[in-house]
From TrEMBL, chain A:
Residue ranges occupied by any Galectin domain in the UniProt entry: 4-131
Pfam families found in the cross-reference section: Gal-bind_lectin
GO term, biological process aspect, one: cell-cell adhesion
Gene it is expressed from: LGALS2
Keyword presence, Electron transport: no
Organism per entry: Monodelphis domestica (Gray short-tailed opossum)
Keywords assigned: Lectin
UniProt name for this protein: Galectin
GO CC list: galectin complex
PANTHER family in the cross-refs: GALECTIN, GALECTIN-2
GO molecular function, one term: carbohydrate binding
CDD domains, A to Z: GLECT
UniProtKB/TrEMBL annotation, chain B:
Organism the protein comes from: Monodelphis domestica (Gray short-tailed opossum)
Key word Nucleus present: no
Listed GO MF terms: lactose binding; laminin binding
Source taxon at top rank: Eukaryota
Keyword Ligase: no
UniProt name for this protein: Galectin
InterPro entries named among the record's database cross-references: ConA-like_dom_sf, Galectin-like, Galectin_CRD
UniProt KW keywords: Lectin
A single GO cellular-component term on record: extracellular space
Pfam families to which the protein is assigned, alphabetical: Gal-bind_lectin (PF00337)
Residue intervals of the Galectin domain: 4-135
Gene3D superfamilies xrefs: 2.60.120.200
Length: 131, 135
């Protein structure tokens, strides 16, 4: 599998959707998708935790974590292939899960452009698409 | 405007096919798709030139090791048009890459660096990347 895939200089703008596909590892306890300006400046940290049966979302400013949001809707299973979409709106991120459930997280810094993406933890990226 | 996108730590092994879809910009002169270890070590530099360095409608491929370019391989099949969406597939087959062009034609390029893993992917020049699949 992959340890940590990083994508730089992405052209994801407000109103656009990032579509990610990946295979969750058989022994995964969770995974992380980070979107932001750079590794320490994240506008969306999206972290499903299978053991805790929750999805933790947060943002990071200059390496400092901010206020966590939790959504106890987990529909991920180890060993499966999943598709996630993340839409960047002016006020919020909308993350659509494989079963259609939507997780919303505020766009705290009103960012209009996301150049950085990181996928890590128990998942191997198989596809990414900008729409 | 030229854009660049790069992905690192991909951990792609022989047998994988990297399928890239993107838009060739309307006024395209040239674009580049690079696969390898890092900026300085490219197993495959794929460079369609529409009008660049005195070249017209030719694909120039090369490798780069510790920053030094190898010998160019030129392909005269050129199924690219400015202002169109294209799909290019790079099948990593261990000893070589098989490149499939938008018209379905193929050519091979040797894995001169003998990389067993592709960790780095980059697109730049007059090309807007839309999607990447690792099949």
């Amino acid at each position: 599998g992959q340890d940590k895939v990083e994508i730089h200089h992405m052209d994801l703008k407000q109103g656009m959707t990032l579509k990610l596909k990946g295979k969750i590892n058989d022994d995964a306890n969770g995974f992380v998708i980070n979107l932001g300006q750079s590794p320490g400046n994240l506008d969306l940290h999206f972290n499903p935790r299978f053991g805790e049966k929750t999805i933790v979302c947060n943002s990071q400013n200059g390496g400092r974590w901010e206020q966590e949001h939790r959504d106890d809707h987990v529909c991920f299973s180890p060993g499966t292939e999943i598709k996630l979409t993340v839409t960047l709106e002016e006020d919020e991120f909308q993350v659509k899960l494989p079963d259609g459930h939507q997780v919303k997280f505020p766009n705290r810094r009103k960012c209009s452009h996301l150049p950085y993406c990181c996928v890590e933890g128990g998942i191997s990226l198989t596809s990414f698409k900008l729409d | 405007m030229a854009s660049e996108i790069l992905a690192s730590n991909l951990n792609l092994k022989p047998g994988v096919c990297v399928r890239i879809v993107g838009d060739v910009l309307p006024d395209a002169k040239s674009f580049r798709l690079n696969l390898g270890k890092d900026h300085e070590n490219l197993a495959l530099h794929f460079n369609p030139r529409f009008d660049c360095f005195d070249d017209t409608n030719v694909i120039v491929c090369n490798s780069r090791q510790e920053g030094s370019w190898g010998a160019e391989q030129r392909e005269t099949s050129f199924p690219f048009l400015p202002g169109s969406q294209v799909e290019v597939c790079f099948a990593f087959e261990g000893s070589h890459f098989t490149v499939r062009l938008p018209d379905g034609s193929e050519f091979k390029f040797p894995n001169r660096l003998n990389l067993d893993t592709i960790n780095f992917l980059e697109a730049n020049g007059d090309f807007k990347l839309r999607s990447v699949n690792f099949d």
